[in-house]
Amino acid sequence: MNTIKIKGMSCQHCVASTTQALQGLDGINNVVVDLDKGEAHYEGNVSLDTIKAAIKKIGFEVE
């Protein structure tokens, strides 16, 4: 399972938005977003740049 650190999430709506954005990428599966740790865990072989772009598009920063 891969992990990416995300800055700016503060509520369950943020978790839902991030989950939806990542699940919308072809090749990403089993997305779990941890609000307390500021992390998203996922399976798949999608480039980090693609993942960062999807997260930035919804208004969050990637560490």
Percent range of helical residues: 25-40%
Element-level helix/strand string: EHEEHE
Radius of gyration in whole Å, from Cα? 10 Å
Going by CATH, the architecture of one domain would be 2-Layer Sandwich
Largest sheet: 4 strands, antiparallel
Strand order of the largest sheet: 2-3-1-4
Query: Average pLDDT value?
Result: 96
Strand content: 25-35%
**Total E-strand runs:** 4
CATH topology of one domain: Alpha-Beta Plaits
What spatial form do the alpha-carbon principal axes imply? globular
Low-confidence stretches: none
Q: Please give the CATH class of one domain.
A: Alpha Beta
Q: Helical element count?
A: 2
Oligomeric state of this protein: single chain
How far the N terminus sits from the C terminus, by CA atoms, comes to 18 Å
Textual characterization of the structure:
The protein has 63 residues and is an alpha+beta fold. The chain has a domain at 1-41: Alpha-Beta Plaits (2-Layer Sandwich), CATH 3.30.70. It is built from two helices and four strands; from the N terminus they run E-H-E-E-H-E. It has helices at residues 12-23, 48-57, and strands at 2-7, 28-34, 39-44, 61-62. The radius of gyration is 10 Å and the shape is globular. It starts with a strand and ends with a strand. The mean pLDDT is 96.
